[in-house]
Design brief:
Layout: E1 11-12, E2 16-20, H1 26-33, H2 36-39, H3 57-72, E3 77-83, E4 88-98, E5 107-114, H4 121-129, H5 132-138, E6 143-147, H6 153-161, E7 165-167, E8 171-172, E9 178-179, E10 182-186
Parallel strand pairs: 5-6
Antiparallel strand pairs: 1-2, 2-3, 3-4, 4-5, 6-10, 7-10, 8-9
Helix pairs in contact: 1-3, 4-6
Amino acid sequence: MEDVYKNCPKYENEDYILRMVSKEDKLDLLKVYSDKKAVALFNSDNCGGDDFYYTTESRMEQAIDYWFFEYNRAGFVRWTIISKTTNEAIGTIELFHRNADDYFTNCGLLRLDIRSDYEISLEIIKMLGLIIEPTFTLFHCDKIATKAIPSATERIKALKNLGFESTDENLIGHDGTKYVSYFVLRRHG
C-alpha cells in the first residue's frame, strides 16, 4: 500500500498537473493567495484563524514552509496545480484523512485554493478529476468532503457534476465551532 507521506504521487491530464508543492511555486502562488476574490472562496475552517490572504513573498514562503512541516509529520498533503497552458501554478489542493466525533470521520477532507480566473466549473472538474479516485486509497477513507459557500456557484456546479452532494451536517472544529456548507462524495461499490 502506497504511503502518500513517503512518496507524494503526481497526477496529470491534458490540462493540469498536480504535484507536491515546492518552494519554486512561491511567486505564482502569491498571485493566488493575494487574490481577494479567490480567498473569499477558500476553506479556512479549523485553521487557527489563518484566512489565507497573503500579500508578501515572505508570508507565502512561511505558508509553504508550514505545508512542508505538516507533510513531514503526516498532517496533510498540499499539491500545486499547474496549468499546462500557461505553465504556472494556479492553485493548490490540500488533502488529509480526518477522524472525528462527527459526521466527517473516516473522511478525506479536501481544500481547493485556486486563482479566481480559474473558478470556472469546467476547469474545476478537470482539476478535481485528477485526485478524486486516488483520494479514497491514499487517505484510506470512505468519503471526501469539501466546502463550497453558497456564493461559489461555479464550484458548486462542478462538485455536483462530480457526484458530490450538499450536506446539512456540521463539521465540528477543535474548539467546538460548527462549520457549514460542505459537500460530500461517498465511495461507490
